[in-house]
Design a protein that fits this description.
This is Putative transposase. One of its GO terms (molecular function) is DNA binding. In the C-terminal section; belongs to the transposase 35 family. InterPro entries: Cas12f1-like_TNB, Transposase. With 419 residues, this protein is of the alpha+beta class. The longest helix is centred in the middle third of the chain and has 38 residues. A six-stranded mixed β-sheet has the order 13-12-9-10-11-16, sandwiched between helices. A five-stranded antiparallel β-sheet has the order 1-2-8-7-3. Strands 4-5-6 form a three-stranded antiparallel β-sheet. It is 43% helix and 22% strand. It has two domains: 182 residues, no CATH class; 210 residues, no CATH class. The protein binds zinc ion. Zinc ion binds next to loops. The site of zinc ion has 8 residues, from loops.
Length: 419
């Protein structure tokens, strides 16, 4: 699950009144004939893209005029075997791309190319009039010459308003990206400020100065480890077979299957973690949450193993999930430079490089509090006061939680790792 960022939907401002628009990504299991249809729609969409590009260029070369978007849409009407809104969506994408390049060229970035590549496949888009949801099925219309594509709608999407659907090829199969409207949530009325410290051992540590919540990152870390380990195995096995051979193809299939599965698991845990953090914030009536930016931490060279460990830790996604979810409750998330927060002593302000999980000051000897709690409290101090306050109070109550994840991991993991 993710949300629309730069998409046309968000830009046109039609998302605001009814609620929040989210994009749900669901993998498809298509029958052979449906797969053929999907491919045909993609090819036809590519034909639209190629035609728009060719006409746009040709008219400029021959007559010195740039055809505008409205004229292009009018000209292409009824000429393709896809839904008319798909044609329009492709024209819009083309013009967006073209305008953006034009702007960049004006600013002197002439290395950006105008759209030029002829495509074989293009992602088709369905908008409201091309989509019907009935009896738990999603019916995507393809104009009157082609049959519609029918897809079973997942339980969680039933009854939700659907704004847009895209058919996307990813790795080894088709996915639907469905933009749905989720009802707006009640906004929190509070004025408390909190800080969050993302980390590896503890995925998130939150504090409002009085209390702290520490959410374990162990499960997430083990999934990342499994992902890398298994991927390495696949890579090794793949390198031993002849490219294109039967064995090679089977391995590739298995690798994709594994990746799809493990990534779904990872995102599930990330959702569980951020949900816990958001619930904690909502309960306490937060207005704003500051989050440490571990960019600086990640850039340091800490040896091969540590580097790889830090690399798998996809902090950006966790932050995006958190920011988005907080936002739905009207809570702002602001990023601040983390720097030396977890090493600076809350009592004397002296910086000590930390090696253990429990904070230990090399100057005054202060110890006994978890280092991530000190880190989060430091971020809060830095955000609110602009500097570290000597002798600041640390949260008195610390709660440790594990992300509540439903799916049993162990069995499936072993099977995947053995493949
Ligand atoms: Zn100290």
């Amino acid at each position: 699950m993710s949300w629309l960022k730069n998409s046309t939907l968000a830009k046109k401002g039609i998302t605001k009144p009814e609620g929040d628009v989210l994009v749900e990504k669901i993998p498809l299991r298509l029958k052979p004939e449906e797969e053929v249809l999907a491919r045909e729609i993609q090819r036809e969409s590519a034909r639209v893209w190629n035609t728009v590009m060719t006409i746009h260029r040709l008219f400029w070369l021959r007559y010195g005029i740039w055809i505008d978007e409205a004229m292009m849409k009018e000209f292409l009407k009824g000429r393709f075997e896809v839904h008319s809104q798909d044609v329009q969506a492709i024209v819009e994408t083309y013009y967006e791309c073209w305008e953006r390049t034009k702007k960049l060229h004006k600013e002197g970035h002439t290395e950006w190319r105008y759209p030029w590549r002829l495509k074989r496949y293009f992602t088709p888009t369905w908008k409201v009039t091309g989509i019907t949801a009935e009896d738990g099925y999603l019916r995507l219309s393809n104009g009157w010459k082609k049959p519609p594509l029918k897809v079973k709608l997942p339980e969680r999407l039933k009854g939700l308003k659907i704004k847009q659907v895209q058919l996307v090829w990813r790795r080894n199969g088709y996915w639907l990206h469905i933009a749905v409207v989720k009802p707006a949530l009640e906004k929190v009325q509070g004025d408390i400020v909190a800080a969050a410290d993302p980390g590896e051992v503890h995925a998130l540590t939150l504090t409002d100065g009085k209390e702290a919540l520490v959410i374990s990152g162990g499960h997430l870390r083990s999934l990342h480890r499994l992902r890398n380990k298994t991927l390495r195995k696949f890579q090794k096995a793949l390198s031993r077979c002849k490219k294109g051979s039967n064995r090679w193809r089977k391995l590739l299939e298995a690798k994709y299957r594994f990746l799809n599965w493990v990534e779904a698991q990872i995102s599930h845990v990330e959702h569980a973690i951020t949900k816990m953090a958001v619930d904690w914030c909502v309960e306490r009536g937060m207005k704003k949450v500051y989050i440490g930016d571990p960019q600086g931490v990640r850039k340091q060279d800490c040896g091969r193993y540590h580097n790889q460990r830090m690399h798998q830790w996809d902090f950006g996604r966790l932050r995006d999930f958190l920011g988005y979810k907080l936002n739905r409750h009207g809570i702002a998330l602001e990023q601040i430079k983390e720097g030396s927060t977890s090493g600076t002593c809350p009592v004397c302000g002296h910086y000590t490089k930390q090696s253990g999980r429990v904070f230990r000051c090399g100057n005054c000897g202060f110890s006994g509090v978890h280092r991530d709690v000190v880190g989060a409290s430091g971020i809060l101090d830095l955000a609110v006061n602009g500097r570290f306050t000597e002798g600041r109070d640390l949260p008195r109550k610390v709660v440790y939680l594990r992300p509540s994840v439903l799916a049993p991991v162990a069995k499936k993991c072993r099977k995947a790792a053995a493949a």
